[in-house]
Specification:
Distance between the termini: 33 Å
Helix content: 10-25%
Order of helices and strands: EEHEEEEEEEHEEEHHEHEH
Number of strands: 14
Structural class: alpha/beta
Number of helices: 6
Largest sheet: 6 strands, mixed
Bound molecules: guanosine-5'-triphosphate, magnesium ion
């Protein structure tokens, strides 16, 4: 379930050709062989990073090629080596050889670095073939091709942000607004029966994963409604976004709804209750009674939690909420190598 998968091509650099040349200089009769060796092709490495959480970037950029070695030249000049490249993959990525199906690597720690395509050796120039009995060699080798492989990368998605709230609060609508996930949305409680994951993309190609889980009601930890079993899907998130429907349509008090969900989280686990949380007043487009919204806002301020007013239907406050989520869960970007 929830597996991100991409196929990529890695191509190491070809080696440069060895050169065929003889010294030809004034006053140096019968100059010897002087063809230099070709340079080595660059390697392709995969490196595990914490700065990416998904394989999304590879969809835009599926081919990774290292530099080729330069050819050798006369006067015994060796060609320059090709440039090696390092390709970042998220920690947790499994690497398979597409041709054989073999698992090549399992990245578990940031900074792990693995050679996946070796650069070709440079060919030897004719100077290398000279011996005392073979003084004018014309042998010289072509460079060897760099390795080329098709790889399949697989990453089990772990949610960075969990959406919680009452049934019908607008959680699925929000995830469909900020990601490509298209969960079922309907105007009745318990529409969502299984968690949905969505990958949220930012314009700088960074991304994070949001989980939309079934709504909670009072007594969820006792199995009421769909129960609290789905909370384990958000146990390892770094941030919770708590949606509270502030429209009158609920017929309930938003402050009471908020507290009910908080109690259910706390009964499930102290860790979950202690997670950083953003509270979002949902369905602001149809909220008529501003005193209700204000009462909740003051309640949230007293708890020291971040407060947003949103409407997924009208697109209000959604971008701001999205970027605030990103700030909480993304390690700051590193300059590209
Ligand atoms: N007017 C208005 N309606 C909204 C908004 N967001 C969601 N809705 C509606 O509210 C209803 C419930 O939305 P869902 O996204 O399915 O709610 P949910 O929190 O996922 O509900 P469960 O899956 O049952 O827990 C749907 O009819 C949505 O169209 C909003 O911002 N404004
Ligand atoms: Mg839902």
């Amino acid at each position: 379930m929830f597996i991100d998968e991409v196929r990529i091509l890695v191509k190491a650099g070809d080696g440069g050709n060895g050169c065929l040349a003889f010294r030809r200089e004034k006053y140096v009769p019968r100059g010897g062989p002087s063809g230099g060796d070709g340079g080595r092709g660059g390697d392709v490495f995969l490196v595990a990073t914490e700065h990416q959480n998904t394989l999304l970037a590879f969809r835009y950029n599926p081919e990774h090629k290292a530099g080729r070695g330069r050819h050798g030249e006369g006067s015994n000049k060796t060609g320059a080596d090709g440039r090696s490249i390092e390709v970042d993959v998220p920690v947790g990525t499994l690497v398979y050889d597409e041709a054989t199906g073999e698992r090549l690597y399992d990245f578990t720690h940031p900074g792990e670095r693995v050679l996946v395509a070796r650069g070709g050796r440079g060919g030897r120039g004719n100077a290398r073939f000279a011996t005392s009995t073979h003084q004018a060699p014309t042998e010289h080798e072509p460079g060897r091709p760099g390795e080329e492989k098709r790889l399949r990368l697989e990453l089990k998605l772990l949610a960075d942000v969990g959406l919680v709230g009452f049934p019908n609060a607008g959680k699925s609508t929000l995830i469909s607004r900020i990601s490509a996930a298209r969960p079922k949305i309907a105007d009745y409680p318990f529409t969502t029966l299984e968690p949905n994951l969505g990958v949220v993309e930012l314009p700088d190609y960074r991304s994070f994963v949001v989980a939309d889980i079934p709504g909670l009601i009072e007594g969820a930890h006792l199995g009421h409604g769909l129960g609290a079993q789905f909370l384990r899907h958000i146990e390892r998130t770094r941030l919770l976004v708590h949606l509270v429907d502030v429209s009158e349509a609920t017929g309930r008090d938003p402050v009471r709804d908020f507290e009910t969900v908080m109690e259910e989280l706390a009964s499930f686990s102290a860790d979950l209750a202690a997670k950083p949380m953003i509270v979002a007043a949902s369905k602001m487009d149809i909220a008529q009674n501003h005193e209700r919204v204000e009462a909740l806002r003051r309640h949230i301020a007293a708890r020291g939690l971040l407060w947003f007013e949103i409407s997924s239907a009208a697109g209000l406050g959604i971008d701001k909420l999205k970027y605030t989520m990103a700030e909480h869960v993304l390690v700051p970007a590193v300059p590209q190598r």
